[in-house]
Structures are given as structure tokens and as C-alpha cells.
Amino acid sequence: MKLAWKQIEPFVKSPDPKARAILVYGPDDGLMRERVKTMGLTAVSDLNDPFNSVLLTAEQILADPARLPDEANAISMMGGKRLIRIDGARDAIAPLIKDYLKSPNENALLILMAGELGPKSPLRALFEKAENAAALPCYVEDERDMAGFVRRTLQESGFGISPDAASWLAAAVTGDRGRARSELEKLITYMGVNRQITLDDTRDCCGDAGERTLDDLAYGAGGGNAAIALRAFETLTAEGTPAVAILRALQNHFRRLHLARARYDAGDAPDAILKTLSPPVFFKQADSFRAQMQRWQLPALEKIMARLSSLEADCKKTATPAETLCAQAILSIGSMK
Q: What pLDDT does 262 receive?
């Protein structure tokens, strides 16, 4: 079965019992593993249970095709359901999964974890079309979705957060749900008994959440310093930041520049423009943002935003050299006059 966007979160919390196998795929590894954990715990109480839970790799399945049905049909000494997770799933194991789905164990839940899979992927197509399986995508969340996650998670722990603080933190951690949750846990510990979180609180506690490197990238590109932008890009990719998250950070920066430039052309004073942007421009970056706002003309900004949007769509396609294309775009933008 193919899950619609609105079906995903309810399904993760309570998987459809008809789905005896679930494929979780996409570029956001942190979000993928968080969802796998949530769904896995609906089958077993401990993911590390040596009797009821097993973690395999695609290579192990390919090397020994009998391993999957043997593990799925094994009877636990302690009783209960079985959880079988397969890491690094890819198209090569699609025929083996198809055979298993012909007669799956009703007391076993099979969860496959994969990276990005295109629409033509045999493995993805198998799970989308099967009535007793489900395909669950994990695409990089945009800042609005991440801000919502930040607010919900903090609210569940009894904390409130100001809109500008939620926006700032979302921009800093967009691209990896796992890193986002880690930063939120750190922020909750930092706040202690103080239940209302401000922008200063988030900056003080989560200033190293990746925001500095993303800012170096955005301000380097916008300021015409391709060398700084490319160094930041190399750091982000080395840390595993998805290309889509990097592109969205750039789009957000140039979108803000476009808004500011439009108001500047309409006659608004630069200082007044900076004060009313949301989230606010960090005071240490105010001079740089003001200079970029005055440097870029609206047609050039529109051209850059269109290119970044098109590049994001290309990066979601299978076999696209995302890092190379991103580096070329950053070099081109940083070199524009």
C-alpha cells in the first residue's frame, strides 16, 4: 500500500495490522530511524531483545536467501511477536521480499530501511502495490514542518517556545530529525524548571546545532565569497547533511533577501527592514545581510531562487550526482556579480 502524506504519522504510531512488511525510505536518515523505532516498539517491547528482535543487512539476505524466512518464522522461547529489521535495503532483494510476502508470518513484523528510492525502484513499487505491505517515505522536512515538530515535542514535555525561537531552531536542525531530537533533549535539560523558552535560550544552548556552518554557506554565497561557501558545503556534506537540506537553507536565505530587497526598492529604510524580518537577523550578521540586500537586484534573486528550486527537484531523482550539482550551483552563485 502507498501511504498518503496525511496517513504517515497515524500509521507510524499504529501500523495497519495488514501490513506484515514495511519499507521505510528517504534521504532523512534520522527521521527514518526514529519512525522505525516507533513502529518496531509496537511489535516488541525492546528492540534489542535477543529472542524476539533481529537486525539483518541486505548483504546477509543476499548471501543466504533462506535467512529471512527462517528468522521471520522462528518461534521465540519467550513467546510473543517477532521483529525483523533489514538495514541498507536495496532493489536487489526485491525478489526475495516478494517471495516472503506470498506467505508472511502473521506474528512477525518485517521493517526494511533504505535510502532514497526513485518511483521506478522495484523494491518501492513492490511495497506500494502489495496489499500486505506498506511503503513509508521519509523526505527532508522543511522549516515549517520542523518548527511544528519542535513545538509539539516541547509541548509534550511541558515547555512552551516563542515563535522566533522555534523558527531559529528549526532552521538550525532542518534535514535530520535525529539531530533535531538530540538538540531538543539538550534544550529541555538546559531549561530546568523554566518552562518558557526564548530565542536567547535556544541560541545559548543550541548555538552549535549546525547553524553556524549553514550561515557560513548562505552568507558566503550571498556575499560573493565562493571559497567560504564551498568550505561550509564540504563540512556539511562530511557531517552527512542531506543535499536537500542544504539547498533549502540557501533558498531560505535568498528568499529573505528577495523580501528585504523588495521593501528596500519600495523605499523602506534598511534598519527598519531588518528589525521586522522573522526570524530576526542575528545582530552579528546584520551588516552582512544589509550589504547583500543592497547588492542584489530582484531579477537576479529570482533567477537564483528558481535555480535552487529546480536543483532540489533534480536531487530527489535516483542516481543524480547531488553533491556535484550543489557544489557547481554554490560556486556559480558565489561568483555572480
A: 94
